[in-house]
Structure formats: structure tokens, C-alpha cells
Amino acid sequence: MQGFWYRLLVDVKIMEIERRCKGDVKLLRKILREEHGIDL
């Protein structure tokens, strides 16, 4: 059950970021860098 819950949270976060960037790769990179500390 814990594995399912974690995966659900990850999927929801991914969908949220995809909705916000609307296919704009530069905006996607900016969101990941500024909000999540992920630099691509």
C-alpha cells in the first residue's frame, strides 16, 4: 500500500508540472531548477 501511495504522489506531481509548463521545455527546466533543485 505504501508503494502505491508514493507512486501516486509522484505521478500527481509530474502531472502538475506538465500542466504548468504546457510543453515549454525552458519553463519545465526553470520549474524543476527553482522549485525542486533539479538542474538538467
Features:
2 helices, mainly alpha, 40 residues, elongated
Give a structural overview.
Helix content is 80%, strand content 0%. The protein has two helices and no strands. The protein has helices at residues 2-21, 25-36. The radius of gyration is 12 Å and the shape is elongated. The mean pLDDT is 92.
What's a quick, concise take on this entry?
The chain has helices at 2-21, 25-36. The protein is an all-alpha fold and 40 residues long.
Total number of distinct structural domains: 1
Assembly state here? single chain
Radius of gyration (Å) = 12 Å
The proportion of strand residues reads under 5%
Give the helix/strand layout.
Blueprint: H1 2-21, H2 25-36
Helix pairs in contact: 1-2
